[in-house]
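Quick one, tokens below:
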């Protein structure tokens, strides 16, 4: 739990500081395993809610924002 919380705090601070503007993959990848392990601690109800939020945000970004990809 402490490592997951530490990973979340670090990712938020790095994102707010603007350090993650370039080479995002190398900055975020070390924290992904700890965030993934943290999802195992969630109850099944929260996992369903989280999945729904992810799907909703992905659809909103796909349909409302223009990306050059």
């Amino acid at each position: 739990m402490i490592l997951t919380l530490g990973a979340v705090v670090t990712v938020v601070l790095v994102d707010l500081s603007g350090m993650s503007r370039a080479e995002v993959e190398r900055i975020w990848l070390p924290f992904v395993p700890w965030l993934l392990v943290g999802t195992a601690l969630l109850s099944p109800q929260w996992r369903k809610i989280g999945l729904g939020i992810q799907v909703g945000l992905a659809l909103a970004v796909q349909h409302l924002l223009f990306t050059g990809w």
